[in-house]
Amino acid sequence: MNTLTISEPWLAQLLPQGWPLGTSTLITGPGGSGKPLIGNAVTASWLSAGGSVVFLSLQYPSHTFIAEALRRVSGVDLGGFADRVAFIELDAEMEGMEEVDCHHIRANLVMPSMWTESLLTARAMVPDAGPGILLFGSALNLLLFSPTYGAGTLQEMKATLTRDEGVTSLFSVSSSAKREMIAELETVSDNLLLAHSARDPFRLFVRIERMKDVPFDGTEIQVPFSPELLGEVKEVAEHSRRRVIPLISSI
Fold first, then answer.
1. pLDDT at 164 (0 to 100)
2. What is the chain's Cα-based Rg?
3. DSSP per-residue letters across 59-93
4. How are beta strands 24-29 and 191-198 bridged, if at all?
């Protein structure tokens, strides 16, 4: 199994031989715990190794927040990798998909066909070099609230986790709602990380449940993110969810 060397010490401790390339990973846990920040640690190592990243911005109002979170977690300036980064922005009020610029897509990802088409389009926007292309998205559970399209989109997500050859995928989902659907995603993903948080002060914990073909330490650890950063991520995410969930629930 080819692997990516992880630069963040706390994650490298859990994966001494690195992150398995060409696999799918799901990070699950209660909403508002800071799960996407764990993915940022992988993203930083990925970009530093010469790979490309496609970001799915589902819960954040703009991709500038993604860049800021990455900088604060790892010190990586996303602007230095502009040619190897693409963004897919959720717009549940549009009919299909549009290319905002050569590295930015806006799409109604609630529709199953748009999930597939936007991923393929975004992948073509970045080079397949180094460790390859990483698909990194958070709050996938938001799309499952659609009474019309939720079940179909779930099937497309499962297909991405199980049959999307040539890429490495890393997604975080909240287990606070749509638990049965989330369980289906957990079952089919190659790798599974379980996260939860505690308050006073705000802390994030993670444990690796399984990893494909690489050794790992299954001990639960506290992730070294500040309470301030975790609180800011939670606030932004909840603001977006209050706006996005009612809209998707009506589609």
1. 65
2. 17
3. SSSSHHHHHHHHHHHH---GGGGGGGEEEEEE-TT
4. parallel
Domains and CATH numbers, the chain: 3-7+22-249 (3.40.50.300)
Whole-angstrom distance, CA of residue 199 vs CA of residue 221: 16
Helix residue spans in the chain (DSSP H): 9-14, 35-48, 63-74, 112-123, 150-163, 179-188, 227-249
What pLDDT, on the 0 to 100 scale, is given for residue 67?
78
The one-letter code for the residue type at 67 is A
Q: Identify the three-state secondary structure at position 22.
A: coil
pLDDT at 21: 95
Asked if 244 and 174 count as a contact pair (C-beta separation under 8 A), the reply is: no
- In tens, the pLDDT along 184-218 reads 999 999 999 999 999 989 999 999 999 999 999 99
Read off the tokens for 80: 């230095």
Tell me the percentage of the chain whose pLDDT exceeds 70.
97
